[in-house]
Amino acid sequence: MPEKNDVVKRVITSREMRALEVNAEYYGISLLQLMENAGHNVASEIALRFSKDKSVAIFCGLGGNGGDGFVAARHLTALGFRVIVILAGRGKDITHKAALENWNTLRSMRNITIHEVADSSLIPDVQADVVVDALLGTGTKGMLKPPILQFVKKINSMDAFKVAVDIPTGIDADTGEVLGEAVRADLTVTFHKSKKGLEKAKEYVGELIVKSIGLPEELENYAGPGDVQMVLKARRPESHKGDFGRLLVIGGSETFTGAPALVALAALRTGIDLAYIAAPEKTAHVISSQSPDLITIKLDGRHLNSANVPALKAYIEKADAIAMGPGLGLHKETVDAVKNLIEAIEAAGKPLLLDADGLKAFSGFKRKLKIPLVLTPHAGEYAILTGKRLSEGLTEKIGEVQKTAAELGATILLKGAVDIISDGVRFKLNFTGNPGMTVGGTGDVLSGIVGAFLAQDVGPFEAAVAGAFINGAAGDFVFEEKGYHMVASDLLSWIPKVLNDPMSHLRVRSKIAKAT
Fold it and tell me: Prior bond to 147 cis, omega within 30?
């Protein structure tokens, strides 16, 4: 299969691409711009292959892929082609904002014939030299259903050169699976990067061309609202307690009772169903008094010790993820207990987040674990973990964090003015947050958010990226209310608001930038 590329050839999943598009809008590249570039690229590829006396039929869906088709129709008409647009539905049902704008523009053009087809039995018997499939995009999952199925059959029945926009309708963008029936394209014009499933569906893809739509490569390394949307778990009416995760928090001591409470409360605000806090008995009583939402497991002794491990194994089995370290202390018996607990967690196959004293204890016997592992150090804790101070430059820091993450087989979330998240291969930078968040406890809130996502079966890298964005954004909303006079518990009530509308952080970005 010949390939032409305007960008570096790599693959991207449908979830990653959707997140990237949302993040692009957050960073100032509108979906309207991306759609314009996509549609123009499709028109250009057709114009390279066919003379202007040819006719083009464009089958469009009601979403973003259809919007790309609307733009292609406008550009092809401008180039002199005879264009027919067949809409799979009614224009009044288009809800995609950018697609609707381009639809309204298309309707005002006299030289384009438009058919709105609400009933698949009424698909017009159009004739064309080129047929464009702009029905469904990369987010398609599940078997095709009417009326799209009938449109796909119609396209395949036509004696014309077939062009698929982004991906042939009926192909799963991630697996290459044929969803019942799929468009058999002669040419597929995909955008930004190739999609994983295209390589496995060559007989449907035809010639594959990857075109740039104006998404800078570096944007893939920036955290944004798309990363939050990517990890959210839909709640069905029939959901039961436990469906959204159980987090076990192991932490706290006589001196530090607030830290594990903040972790658990942040996890609950993030959407898990249950958060258990395992702490020494006296500490657990104090923690219980802080909120009726907290469930405590009272451990024997003044500090966490190895004798507590057998009792905790049952809770480790019950939990979906474990966050260990906040407020734990570093007594020798506690460090020994951390090592034994990590072995028990590893044996149970549960994801683990280590922060604060748990991370410091781990630094004494660090090794690759056989479970998903997230480490959330600040610069000082990172120095303890690695035995080396971080470089000052951001580029150098990124390389160092990537190297350490690869060596430990972990995801590292290095907290700072710019958070650096890496799993040893990928990295992302998070820019949310402000200097007011140097107050104690904001890192515990972060651990709770990330721990909650781990408990909901989100991968460690994605959980850390989303958690960093949410934690910083919550802190920025608090800054808008209180300035730098904030405490960590102020962030808790903002977590759901960021989760429900992560793009709303745009409203405070400029204020934060001016203040800092």
Answer: yes
Residue 8 has pLDDT above 50, yes or no: no
* Percentage above 70 pLDDT, the chain: 98
How far apart (Å, rounded) are the C-alpha atoms in residues 99 and 232? 25
Return the HEC string of 214-251. Answer: CCCHHHHHECCHHHHHHHCCCCCCCCCCCCCCEEEEEC
274, amino acid identity: L
Query: pLDDT tens digits, residue range 257-314?
Result: 999 999 999 999 999 999 999 999 999 999 999 999 999 999 999 999 999 999 999 9
Distances in whole angstroms, Cα of residue 279 to Cα of each of 103, 263, 434, 452: 60, 13, 31, 19
**What's the whole-number mean pLDDT along residues 153-179?**
97
Rounded to whole angstroms, the Cα distance separating 167 from 163 reads 9
> Which tokens belong to 28?
């100032």
Q: Regarding beta strands 187-191 and 207-211, do their DSSP bridges make them parallel or antiparallel, or are they unpaired?
A: parallel
Cα torsion at 23, 29, 33, 34 (round to 10°)? -30
Query: What gap in Å lies between CA 125 and CA 509, rounded to an integer?
Result: 52
Task: Indicate the pLDDT class of residue 239, thresholds 50, 70 and 90.
Answer: confident
The tokens for 431 are 């820019």
Task: Look up tokens 């920025």; give the residue.
Answer: 476
Please report where in the chains the tokens 């947050």 appear, as a residue. Answer: 433
Q: In sequence order, which residues have a C-beta less than 8 Å from that of residue 430 and are 6 or more positions away?
A: 222, 223, 418, 419, 421, 465, 468, 469, 472
Q: Hey, what are 493's tokens?
A: 């009530």
Long-range contacts of 507-512 (CB under 8 A, 24+ apart): 508/476, 508/477, 508/479, 508/480, 509/476, 511/479, 511/480, 512/434, 512/476, 512/479
190-224: pLDDT as tens digits: 999 999 999 999 999 999 999 999 999 999 999 99
* Structural contact between residues 60 and 50, judged by C-beta atoms closer than 8 angstroms: no
Query: % helix / strand / coil in the chain, to the nearest 5?
Result: 50, 15, 35
pLDDT at residue number 6: 43
pLDDT 10s digits, 29-47: 999 999 999 999 999 999 9
- What is the model's pLDDT at position 4? 43
Q: How confident is the model at residue 327 (pLDDT cuts 50, 70, 90)?
A: very high
Task: Pick the closest to residue 486 from 506, 457, 515 (CA basis).
Answer: 515
Structure tokens at 436: 């007011």
With cut-offs at 50, 70 and 90, classify the pLDDT of residue 138: very high
The residue type at 375: L
Q: How far apart are CA 303 and CA 462, in angstroms?
A: 33
Strand order across the 427-430 sheet: 295-299, 274-280, 246-250, 321-324, 352-354, 373-375, 411-414, 419-422, 427-430
- Measure the CA–CA gap between 194 and 198, rounded to whole angstroms: 7
